Amino acid sequence: MYDYAIEAKQVTKFYGAVPALEQVDLRVKRGSIYGLIGDNGAGKSTFLKLLAGHIYAASGELRIFGQPGVQELRRCRRRMGIMIEQPGFFPNMTVERTLEYYRIQKGIPGKEKTEEMLVLTGILEKRRSLCKRLSLGQKQRLGLAIALLGEPELLVLDEPTNGLDPSGIVELRTLLHRLNEEKNITILLSSHILAELQQTATHFGFLSRGHLLEELSAEQLYEKCADYLDISVSDMERYAALLERDFPGESWRVLPDGTVRILALRREPEAYSRLATDNGIYIRALERHHASLEDYYMNLKNGGNQAC
């Protein structure tokens, strides 16, 4: 079995003379939840549309389940569930009839599948409501229900939390984890709510101005965003010398404002404060931090290589 559900090699896409994606190399492992991160205009929706077959690349190669080529990709897309941008529905059709329409269109047998998807996505009570009467969050749920018809092996979602209230976001996160863990569905999603994405995804890709800056796993992200400690003291040079002497091998650096930053903490904060006070150094400030996915992305986008 091929290791990757999605593999892009040097994929480039232009809108007129404007590059939307430039030589993007991206790989989504089977069984992962891959979070695609980037500002508006970074190329996220363009890449998802390429996957869906809505648009085509100017150059490069795209593989789905290891298969390249136009005909092979068309067949592989039948194994995908896709929700890109705001779902479009027939405004005067009910939720249930809309889902039934897509079930028949996709050639999925069993009318009970319609009710199963309504229950799964939490919109069963809206089954007889007209689509035009739905809130934005309810439309997102209906779009997800359509994408899940036929039990896809790969689920592609563009901003799936759009319009959901906090409870709905938590429910969606739980649902995605369940689909991933119980049905082994690979999920690729983009979201501008990075704090939520950090709790959902197992892998991340960072896009900026059409370029893929980095890919890493949740474990690698955690290591790079590990706890750090900022200490402001009355005698920075002496404190730095004490760190070298008493805590050999400790990772630290001095920031431009004179603050000492302890990276990848090996000890409790009290050990670092005691080192100062036991040697007659006054502590002006001591603050513990844990960098977030948002911190990491902003630092990476601005040319840094670690959130700390």
Structure description:
The model has no long low-confidence stretch (mean pLDDT 91). It is built from eleven helices and 13 strands. The chain is elongated and about 75 Å long. Helix 3 (95-105) crosses helix 4. The chain has a six-stranded mixed beta sheet, sandwiched between helices. With 308 residues, the protein is an alpha/beta fold. The protein has helices at residues 44-52, 70-76, 95-105, 112-120, 136-148, 166-183, 194-200, 218-224, 236-246, 269-277, 293-301; strands at 4-15, 18-29, 33-37, 59-64, 80-83, 154-158, 186-190, 203-208, 211-217, 228-233, 251-254, 260-263, 283-289.
Largest sheet: 6 strands, mixed
Total strand count, please?
Answer: 13
Q: State the secondary-structure class.
A: alpha/beta
Q: What is the first-to-last residue Cα distance?
A: 38 Å
Strand content: 25-35%
Task: Give, in order, the helices and strands.
Answer: EEEHEHEHHHEHEHEEHEHEEHEH
* Overall morphology: elongated
Q: What percent of residues adopt helix (DSSP H or I)?
A: 25-40%
Number of helical segments with 4 or more residues: 11
pLDDT < 50 runs, ≥5 residues: none
> How would you write the strand order of the largest sheet?
5-6-7-3-8-9
Radius of gyration: 24 Å
Summed over residues and divided by their number, the pLDDT gives a mean of 91
What are its keywords?
single chain; 308 residues; alpha/beta; four-stranded antiparallel sheet; 11 helices; elongated
